[in-house]
């Protein structure tokens, strides 16, 4: 019996799917746009790409451009000669050897831009006095696995090589992302460990994708969230399968796509995992956190019961505030535990 199932066969995590009162505050507003979103996702991908992207709203209290932070964009060349964009956030008063927060945005490897997680990126740049770099990796289905992973790795290595111009310490890097971006970040830490690439001192995995449904080790971990939250708002189980079909059409059993299947998670950096209770991805996020802990990795786990995938797109909600604060606080705490962690 999986250890995540209590004695008697009852699931441990089913209660996390119960709708949180905070989500009920915006559920009607979300429902009003859900049909339009479904229509957009049904378009051919070329038509979908023509629709202007609208990132989540920025709260009024967010760091101010020009006063608290500065933002610029740049193109870099990756391994196959293609150019990909990066978005760079820096504290307005720039020092030297800042922490680098390397962000890989979510969007099912299919949609999104570096502005998808704009709110957190601005906040981390200002509050943690970090330099944030968010990579605009190439998207599936035109560019399936492993393009997004390779683009992200190449961008991370570019940051290390250009540490002086970015004003970062190349040995003080936290990688972090949401959903599919978190999936890529997990694999970046595996590749860095296995190839002796130093510098990653932590990782933040928000609502992470950690295993293709076909290959999930359900004999070891509870795996009911795809059923319990099949029709959840924001991202349904069907939408997630669509994203997987775009990214990994061959459904390969590859730990570079399904990091929960890695032979070992030992030696990975301290990790913050944040999981939404009303999310099809809930159980794979919890499984990855458990597997990290079993491998001796320092893990901080935050669970947001009754909240759906990417609930932080509604920044006015109290769980969204806690979600953002958790990242800022964790980075601050980690800074005191790594070499040079409190300096700039």
TrEMBL record:
InterPro entries named among the record's database cross-references: AB_hydrolase_3 (IPR013094), AB_hydrolase_fold (IPR029058), GDXG_lipolytic_enzyme (IPR050300)
Q: Which Gene Ontology molecular function entries are recorded, alphabetically?
A: hydrolase activity
Report which superkingdom the organism of origin falls in. Eukaryota
Q: Which UniProt keywords apply?
A: Hydrolase
Q: Which residues form the Alpha/beta hydrolase fold-3 domain?
A: 102-312
PANTHER family given in the database record: AB HYDROLASE SUPERFAMILY PROTEIN C4A8.06C, ALPHA_BETA HYDROLASE FOLD-3 DOMAIN-CONTAINING PROTEIN-RELATED
Name listed for the protein in its UniProt record: Lipase esterase
This protein's species is Phialemonium atrogriseum
């Amino acid at each position: 019996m999986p250890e995540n199932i209590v004695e008697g066969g009852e699931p441990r995590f089913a209660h996390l799917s119960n709708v949180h009162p905070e989500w009920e505050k915006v559920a009607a507003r979300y429902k009003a746009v859900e049909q339009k979103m479904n229509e957009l996702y049904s378009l051919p991908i070329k038509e979908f790409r023509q629709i202007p992207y609208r990132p989540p709203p920025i709260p009024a209290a967010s760091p101010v451009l020009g006063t608290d932070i500065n933002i610029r964009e740049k193109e870099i060349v990756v391994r196959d000669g293609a150019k990909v964009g990066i978005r760079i956030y820096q504290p307005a008063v720039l020092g030297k050897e800042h922490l680098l927060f390397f962000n890989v945005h979510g969007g099912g490897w299919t949609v999104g831009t570096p502005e998808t997680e704009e709110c957190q990126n601005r906040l981390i740049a200002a509050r943690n006095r970090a330099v944030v770099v968010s990579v605009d990796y190439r998207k599936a289905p035109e560019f399936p696995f492993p393009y997004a992973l390779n683009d992200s790795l190449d961008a991370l290595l570019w940051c290390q090589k250009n540490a002086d111009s970015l004003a970062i310490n190349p040995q003080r890097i936290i990688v972090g992302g949401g959903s599919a971006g978190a999936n890529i970040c997990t694999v970046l830490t595996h590749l860095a460990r296995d190839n002796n690439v130093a510098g990653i001192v932590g990782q933040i995995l928000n609502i992470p994708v950690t295993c293709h449904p076909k290959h999930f080790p359900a004999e070891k971990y509870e795996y009911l969230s795809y059923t319990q939250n099949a029709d959840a708002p924001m991202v349904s189980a069907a939408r997630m399968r669509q994203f997987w079909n775009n990214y990994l059409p061959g459904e390969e059993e590859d730990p570079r796509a399904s990091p929960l299947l890695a032979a070992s998670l030992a030696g990975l950096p301290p990790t913050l995992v944040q999981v939404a209770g009303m999310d099809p991805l809930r159980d794979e996020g919890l499984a990855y956190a458990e597997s990290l802990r079993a491998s001796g990795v320092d893990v901080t786990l935050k669970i947001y019961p009754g909240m759906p995938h990417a609930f932080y797109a509604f920044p006015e909600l109290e769980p969204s505030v806690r979600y953002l604060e958790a990242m800022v606080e964790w980075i601050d705490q980690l800074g005191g535990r790594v070499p040079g962690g409190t300096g700039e």
